Structure formats: C-alpha cells, structure tokens
Amino acid sequence: MNEARTRSRKIESVISFLLLAVLVGIVAGVFIRQFGTGSEKFGIDPVAAGVIEFDIETAQAVTPQINLSKWTPTNFFAAGKSEVYTADTLYEKINGKAPLYTDAGFERLFTQRYMSADSQLGMELYLFVMKDATAAFTVYSTQKRPQTEPVEELGQAYRTSNALYLAHGKFYVELVGFAEDQRLFAAQLTVGRQIEKELVVEKEQNGFAIFPSNGLIKGSEKLYTDSAFGFDRFGKILTVRYRVGSSELTAFLGELENSQKSCEMAEGYVNFLKNNGAMLRGESELPDGGKMWSLELYGFGEIVLTCGRFVGGVHEAEDLQAAKELIRTIADNIRNR
User: Fold this and answer.
1) For residue 320, how many other CB atoms are within 10 A of its CB?
2) Is residue 46 part of a domain?
3) What is the domain-level CATH number for residue 108?
C-alpha cells in the first residue's frame, strides 16, 4: 500500500516537472518573438527568421548605410516601429505583387510611417533594396503609374496626386501619402532628397547614358522587360521620348551579347514590322559593319539600327528626318562609349 502511494507521488512529480518545463518553453518562445533583438543568444537571427518588427538600431546593423532616424521631415514624427521584410515575408506587406519584386532581384524592404505633428497628414515610406541598379529601375519602370509628373528636383523620379516614386542606384523608393496635399508632397520631397544625399550608390553606366540629352522629356524613361512594341523577342529594351518642334519621337535601345545577336534581333524586328504592313523605304550599310532600315507603317516612320552589340531605333516617328538625325546621334554615342 505504501509502495503504491510512493510510486504515485513519483509519477505526479515527473508530470509536474514536465508541465513546468513546457510552460518555461512557452514563456521563452514568447520572449524571443517579442524581443527579437535578444534572440541571437538562442542562435536565432530575427531578420533571417522573418521577424518583421525591429527598432532603428537593428535596421542600421542589418544595413548600415540606411539611417531611418534622419529621414523624419520637420514637423513630423515616426509613427510606430520601422519594419523589415525579406523575400519570405514580402507578401505580408504587398500581397499579390511580391513576385514582381522577387523576380527582378529583391533583397529587403524597409518601411516607416510618418505623421504630422497635428496628425492630420501622414505617409508611409517603402524602401526596396534590390540586387543592383538595373533591378531597381526594372521595378520603377514596371510599376509606373498613369497620370504622373516628373520631379525636377530629384534624379530619376515622378509623382502622382498623393505619392512620390524614385529610383536611386539599387534602391527603389515609394513615399505614399494618406491624402492629397501640397504640404505632404513637400515633406515627401524632403525625404527623397535625404535618400539621394545619404544613400551613396555607385554610378553605373547604363544604356540610358547613350541617349542624347537634347530634347529628352524628363521622366519618360522606360524599360520593357519583354515584348516591346508587340515584338515578343524584344526584351530589356530601354525607351525614352523626345520633343522635336511640335512632335514627339520615341527612341529605343537594347544591348545584346554580341553584334551577331543584335543583327539577328534587328532583322527579326524589321520582318515583324513588314508582316504587320510596314513598307521598307530604305536600307543602308554603316561604316562600322552596322545596318540601318527605314520603314513606313500607317503613316509613321520606323527606324531600326544595329551598331555593334546594340540594337536601336525610333518608333512611330511623325518627323522622319528628325528621327534619322536622332538615330545618327545615338549611333555616334554607341561608338564613343
């Protein structure tokens, strides 16, 4: 009888110990989740693990060149904690659009809300860190909204009625206001300037540097990731618009692996235009081994050029002579790279 009672007490002690251990584990897990900055002691990296909330010091430790605390505009305050998202958690912030960013070369997203001192105006900063400048511009171009205006005070930037968007090196930035207000835009512009000033990026020579600046319409830069002008082989094609007198021209440029590839691409596009009703008006060999075609399609001029490993041209030109002059300048810039 005493032996059975003793055994029963031992079993109860073991069960009590196990329950206590479970409770301690739950408390520890909650502590780690809520206080991510100390979770490294347990062998857990809160950013790698996808923990969203973190303080500014943690953000600076993860990406030292980003100082979120300096970006709060005058008469505004940072509302809530900054947040960071990885490729595994990006969908939580931009559900439905995450693949666009991850496919382009997404690394991290930092966000922060700012509210005015009287709490009547507010905005949210989205700072996307991409793998390189091409990836950042891909998203910037693909996400470009209708009814936009270029922002002259910044580098590559445009605005809508309530938001400011810019591409700066490997960073793509959105400053989305919660209202339409000129004071809010002034605050967004201040943050944009700070980003361009404080986030030092390497100046990369890209295809846009080949386009001449004279007559170029600021903010018209665009990147087609595929099927530019309906031609399914036209991928990674840069376009810009020019204003010449009362008309506009759209110039395009793509860089391929070698001159043979560019020639094949140009000839493919010329045949595509012909198959869609274009009439060939001229074809000429260039001194450096390149080639130029002049076509007419539905009353508009089409110029196609191959020069080295580049394929370029002018699309739907109202002024064919201006288009030819523009493409000659582009060809000269390619040769002088």
Assistant:
1) 19
2) no
3) 3.40.1000
Long-range contacts formed by 100-108: CB under 8 A, 24+ apart: 100/139, 100/142, 100/143, 101/128, 101/130, 101/139, 104/130, 104/135, 104/138, 104/139, 104/142, 105/130, 105/131, 105/132, 105/134, 105/135, 105/138, 106/130, 106/131, 106/135, 107/131, 108/62, 108/63, 108/84
* Residue 105 falls inside a structural domain: yes
Model confidence pLDDT, tens digit, residues 38-81: 333 323 233 333 333 334 344 444 444 466 767 999 999 999 88
Interval 289-317 mean pLDDT:
93
Instruction: Decide if 298 is inside a domain.
Output: yes
- 172-190 tens-digit pLDDT: 999 999 999 999 999 999 9
* Residue 203 confidence class, pLDDT cut points 50, 70, 90: low
pTM, 2 dp: 0.67
Task: Give residue 77's domain range.
Answer: 56-198
